[in-house]
Amino acid sequence: MLLNKNAMLAFGLFTFCTIGIAVAQTPPTAEIRGQGQIQGQGQEQAQAPQPTPGQGPAATTQAPPEKETWKAPFGGSWTATFAFATDYSYRGISQTQRQIAVQPAFTYETPTVSENVALSAYVGAWGSNVYFGNTNPTIAEVDLIAGLRLKALEGKLTGDLGYIRYNYLGAPSNLFYDFNEFGLVLGYDFGVAAIQGAVRYSPNFYANSGIAWYKWGQVTVPIPYTFNENFAFKLYGAIGNQYVERFTNYGIGNDNYWDWQIGFTATVYGVDLTIAYIDTNLDVPNCAATMNCDARAVFTISKTF
User: Fold this and answer.
1) Which single residue of 45, 64, 90, 216 could bond 49 by disulfide (Cβ 3.0 to 4.6 Å)?
2) How many domains are contained in the chain?
3) Is 147 a residue whose pLDDT tops 90?
């Protein structure tokens, strides 16, 4: 897709501010995934929604050594990530009508409470261009995040209790696109494989669609082969279920649907290259008469600073 001028200018400014702040200092690892949802074509009718980028694979024992983070106020650290993807897929549904997405992000994380208690707090922002059709003026999604992160058992057990505020730039206020979501993510790294599970809740989801729940699970397996310390490889698979109370506002034909993906990530000199197969059980009639819920391959290149 050719992004319109307003979208490019607005998103260019957001990207400049994000990368400028983060490169001037630098960060830890933030769990910022692609967000987004089914988008409305016309009034409150959603057309087709995350991360995500689908959700990216969790860190494993095969991962390269941690990068040095940039120091920030109060002993914390900044992290900045910049990603380029062939599609912005949110929970299996395209937010760009299967076209390119540029996605900057940054996070500030506090130091842990103590050497014995690996509990920290974080705040940040994530953004992406979106495209909901020629008649919809929405040009970008900017999400504000905050939460608490806990690590235990030498970092093998992880927990994240977080909040996300979804904001849609350019969307008319009477469409009620903006919404809040709360989530809990738990994970454990067994060495040969890492597992993650998440539950997310919104009291009033996108487009005034009422209560929504998202349950998600993922398994990541590092590939035990390396010919250079600057290379690492892993496979992952994920599945999720989205429930929406007023599902017609969201643009789907049922009150819940499934999404899944299988992917491969190669980390080469600190750059992540991911190819993923993404699909849902929504057919065209149940996806606002679009192909945004159909199976597709998505390629993403990302770099964390």
Assistant:
1) 90
2) 1
3) yes
Identify the CATH number of the domain in which residue 86 sits: 2.40.160.40
CB 141 within 8 A of CB 168: yes
Give the range of the structural domain holding residue 248, as residue numbers without chain letter: 5-304
Name which residue leads in pLDDT, 153 or 36.
153
* Residue 37 contacts residue 52 (beta carbons within 8 Å): no
**Position 34 pLDDT exceeds 50:** no
Strand partners, 71: 77
| CA 254 – CA 262 distance, rounded (Å) | 24
Contact 143, 162 (CB under 8 A): no
Mean pLDDT along residues 163-171: 99
Whether the CB-CB separation of 147 and 161 falls below 8 Å is answered with yes
Residue range 66-100, pLDDT digits in tens: 554 566 667 899 999 999 999 999 999 999 999 99
- The tokens describing 111, both together, are 């130091």
Cβ-based burial of 285 (10 A; exposed 0-12, middle 13-18, buried ≥19): exposed
